# Entry
Amino acid sequence: MNREVLLADDEVTFRETFAKVLREEDISVTVVGNGTDALDAVTKQPFGVVVLDIRMPGADGIKVLREIMRIRPETRVIMVTAYGTVEMAVEAIKLGACDYVMKPVVMDDVLTKIRQNMKYLDLQEENKKLKQELTRRFDISQIIGKSPAMQNVFEMIRKVAPTKSNVLITGKSGTGKELVARAIHSLAAQYSRHFLAVNCSAIPEGLLESELFGHKKGSFTSAIRDKEGLFKSACGGTLFLDEIGHMPMSCQVKLLRAVEQRQIIPVGSTQPIDIDLRLMAATNKDLPKEIKAGRFREDLYYRMNVVGIHLPELCERKEDIPLLVEHFIKQFNSEMGKTCVGVSDAVMRLFMSYDWKGNIRELENVIERASIFAEDDVIKISDIGLLGSHAMGLSKEDETLQTAAKAYEKEYIRRVLSKHDWNKVDAAKALNVGLSSLYRKIDELEIDSRKPKRSKANNQ
Ligand SMILES: Nc1ncnc2c1ncn2[C@@H]1O[C@H](COP(=O)(O)OP(=O)(O)OP(=O)(O)O)[C@@H](O)[C@H]1O
Ligand SMILES: [Mg+2]
# Structure
């Protein structure tokens, strides 16, 4: 960002003092003596702060200000006003100037104001960067997958992003529905303001309507003031109705109206409000099945499902697992300051044969925890089996990854033992663990480590 200061004032002595003081403070400054030159200067290059005399020959300060606000609205303009032009200074503030100083100008005052405005510009720039960071996190490049199913998803995202169409994202838990919604939002230029997400299953039925559409003060006991609903707040941006399959029927009727008419009526009001936003919804439920069961409105389903994006389960696109593993390892390396380079072949084989009921979220959790516990730069089977299934967020009914890992580890150790003719010293060396660790594993995994006696029948 340009941090140069422009002074436009017709008083030569003031211009000279001003330029001298600013240069002494190491602030680069351009000075001009009239409005026309000021306009020329601003057209040629941006200035961080412009100090503008209200009364000048050529274009007066107000005219120059209007033009600056038109071509470079981010400029911080400080007006210089003499006795009798204070009203004009107030007018200037309304037009977008950020401050004013009175003549005769006290140099210290104007210097403080310039510094404050430069600080403001720094903060604004920092803020912009942070916002870009946030958007980047959710941009399409953060969605990993090279499988045909995911290529199809990418194509849908790119095609639907520039449109106004409602999007319904379906898929099992942890398949990346919210990630896809955010990616569409960040690619959509026309609804770029903000992304508001509401989890329809997390808000009690009685409050959901007021949460979505807002309410008028006094419309129910706890409505002590007017409340703007999410539909209104999301205008100019995206509203993401997560878990729409859990929305109670009573609310579905209101939602249908909002979707069809692009209007909402806050609870307790009769005045409809126009809404202009991008609507997306997600669910892990099978909505056609919910419709048949009478739990979801068919008309709402068709309204929302103008574009449907279905996310495949991880077990249907196992070829993406190595890429995802690499992606999450890098992510946790940078978050935790680790230097992990990958997973062992055995871990990768296990990952490829596991059924990943919790989908990508489960894989992400597994890598996160393994990254915490791994003592080596390579994640090993033992790093994965460290936690209980509860901590891994897996349900008891499912075969847990630890169970699978243990079975794999048991089989693997048994094979190595067998290969080394059940010699534990050699097997420990081959496994790259201490002898006592091998004994501990044999105990823990209940491996029968005795050399099997060959029966005559086997020899035949
Ligand atoms: N293709 C992908 N590439 C990289 N990360 C992914 C991918 N899909 C999902 N993730 C990550 O997995 C986690 C779960 O994704 P997300 O929250 O979008 O899933 P969801 O389908 O909304 O799940 P739920 O139904 O449980 O709400 C997030 O941390 C997300 O960043
Ligand atoms: Mg989700």
About this structure: Residues 386-398, 455-460 have pLDDT under 50 and may be disordered. The domain at 146-312 is CATH 3.40.50.300 (Rossmann fold). The first strand starts at residue 5 and ends at 8. The pocket of magnesium ion (ligand 2) is lined by residues 177-178, 242 (CB under 6 Å).
